[in-house]
Structure formats: structure tokens, C-alpha cells
Amino acid sequence: MPIPKLGNVKYKVKRSSAGLGLFADEPIKKNTWIIEYVGKILNGKKEVDNYPANKYLFETSNTRMIDGSARSNTARYINHSCKPNCEAEIFSGRVFIKSIKPIIAGEEFTYDYGKEYIDEHIKPYGCRCTHCKAKK
């Protein structure tokens, strides 16, 4: 499958319900490629298994991860939501974020981080996504 072409999407980092978040600066159409999740590439089972844990590790296979903890990785500011407006897709070991519904200007980009991440990092403290906060 070919690597997605990123649109010229305008966004900004600002305060959100979960700390900092990434927000649309303009309306975004459904199925728009927004941003790539980038960082140090960890290759091989030994390197992956021995790498210090952090909440910005994105697993792309059993033996490959991206450490997206650097602030230059703007995609790291996309927060989890139980009712997301985006999804992450992996192409040849690279991670791209795509809108799965129309997004209005000023809306926060979110995607579902997955069960393993939620169980390890979110569940112990409770989900702070806008969907879960509204249910409380």
C-alpha cells in the first residue's frame, strides 16, 4: 500500500481536558491525512524489549517501535478518546493519522489508543476524554 500524502492541514497545540492537545485550525474533511507520528525508530526485539518505557511509544510491529516523545513530534499531542474523530494507520512501519469524520475548526484531534495502552496508562486514573467526562 502506498504511503499516504499528507494534506496541508493547519493545526495548533493548546490546552485540552487531558493536558495539551492538537486542535484543528480549520474545518477538516473526512478521510483527510493529517499528520505523521515520528520519532526515534527502535528496531529488533532486543532493542524494543530493553528500551525505557514511556507513554509515547507507538508499536508498529512485534520488533519495531517509534519513540515519539520528542516535542518535535507534533502528533504526540493527539489525545485518546473513546469516541475519536481520527485513527492511526501503519504503512511500511510509519504511522499516519487520518480523520474518520468531518472535524470543525477548533475541535481537538483524537484517536483510540487501544486496549493495552488504556489498561496500562489510562484505566488506573480514569479516562479524561470529553466523551467519558460527559458521562460522569
From TrEMBL:
Molecular function GO terms recorded: methyltransferase activity
Name of the featured protein: SET domain-containing protein
PROSITE patterns: SET
Main location: cytoplasm
Residue ranges constituting the SET domain according to the UniProt record: 4-114
Record bears the keyword Ribonucleoprotein: no
Pfam families per the UniProt record, alphabetical: SET (PF00856)
Keyword S-adenosyl-L-methionine annotated: yes
InterPro entries with a match to the protein in the record: SET2_Histone-Lys_MeTrsfase, SET_dom, SET_dom_sf
Places the protein is found: Chromosome
Gene Ontology cellular component list: chromosome
Originating species: Candidatus Nomurabacteria bacterium CG1_02_43_90
Highest taxon in the source lineage: Bacteria
Keywords on record: Chromosome, Methyltransferase, S-adenosyl-L-methionine, Transferase
UniProt GO BP: methylation
Stored SMART domains: SET
